Each structure stands twice: as structure tokens, then as C-alpha cells.
Amino acid sequence: MELPPKPQVWFLGFNKTHNSSVHLTLPRIPYGITVYANTRQKQTGSPCDVNHCAHMCVPLPSTYGLESKCLCQDGYNSTDKGKTCQPTVTSKGAMYVYALLDRICAVPIKRTMKTSDDDPKKYCFFSSASKAYKFRTVDFNYKAGEIYFTESGMSVKTIRRAQVENRGVNQVLVYGTGDVRGLVVDWMSSNMYWTDVDTAAIWVSRLEGHHMSKLIKDVYNPVAITVDMQTR
């Protein structure tokens, strides 16, 4: 039985004739191949040499020769064409967000995956020593870097939101709600929905709180709510 020929790699000479070529016999079938030599990567000047970018520089062809462009890595943006790069509001990554009646907390998931003696309270905000606030439900809009929540401890119950990057300041979106037990943000259509036990209804409005409308009436003790983004 005749054995199959062993794999070979052939290198042609500059005149591209068979007589000027050499070959290597290999023990296995070769796949990727390249020639490591300084003549294949000539050291010439780059337009990136004079373009001082914060993160990275990419050469680009143009009618005047080579130009370059600055780029920021994912999670950063720039207002000066990449000379400086600033974190976006969503660059902090994933977080556990929860309400503890008298405060709201947002703990980075990476933080919880490490062995640490960190006090989780340092990630909380809107805390009240007098227990005047009652935060019950939370949701978020990741692209906008916003956290939405309800407050039912004051005389006028509200739905509010705060920026992830500036949690100490919150904005009232809806005044005079009833006992809201469920809140969900529809980030695709820029609506929010909530359940109201006092009015026995499910409500909807724009994310800014405008155009509030009673969506479903006569719902007994409505509590949790979610939005099916796939089949809605």
C-alpha cells in the first residue's frame, strides 16, 4: 500500500522559477503561513506619529496621502475628535440596583464578585435618617444612564428618576400617584408603566411623565409588572 505524500511548503525565488525555489517537508498539514523579515515591514513615518490621541490612532487614506483619526475605546466618547476620551454614563457597567424603603442602592457587580470588606451602604443614596422616604420599586434605562423609582412616604406620592453619574439629584416625573407597587421602563418606545393599588389600574406615560393615561382599569391589587419586548 502506497503511503500518501508528506505535506510540503514551497518558497519561490524572486524570478518565480522552479529552479530558484526551495521547499520544506513537514510532519503535518500546514495552515497559516507568513515570512518574518524586516524587508516586509518597512519602517516609515506614520500620520499617527504627530496625532496625539488619548486611546488609539487609525491611519486613513486620503487624496493628500495618509491621514489619521483618533478613536476612543468602548464606553468612552470625545468632544474634541479623540484628543481626550471621557467615560460615558454607561461605562460603569452592570450593577445590582435595589430599594430598601429608606434608601436606594446601586452596587457594581464586579465589586460583589471580589472578596472585600466593603460596606454596601456606601453605594446607597437618598438615604433618610428620619425614615420619611419610602422607596418601593426601581427600574432603569441603561442607554440614558438613568434609574427610575417610586417614593410613597411623603404626603404626595411620586415617580422619580436620577442619573447614574449624579445620584444625589433626582427629578420628579409624576406627582400624586397612589400606592405604586410595580414600575417598568420600556426603553425601546420611551414609555414607562406602573401598577397603582389605590386606583386599581395600570398606568402608562412617556419617560418624562407626559401624557399619562390609565391603560387598564379595574385590576384587583396590581403589583409586579413587566414588558415583553419580543412579542409586544
Automatic annotation (TrEMBL):
Q: Where are the LDL-receptor class B repeats?
A: 190-231
Protein name as it appears in the record:
Uncharacterized protein
Instruction: Tell me the first and last residues of the signal peptide.
Output: none
| One matching Pfam family | Ldl_recept_b
The source organism is Ridgeia piscesae (Tubeworm)
What InterPro entries is this protein classified in? 6-blade_b-propeller_TolB-like (IPR011042), Cueball_EGF_LRP_Nidogen (IPR050778), LDLR_classB_rpt (IPR000033)
Q: Which SMART domains match?
A: LY (SM00135)
Cited PROSITE patterns:
LDLRB
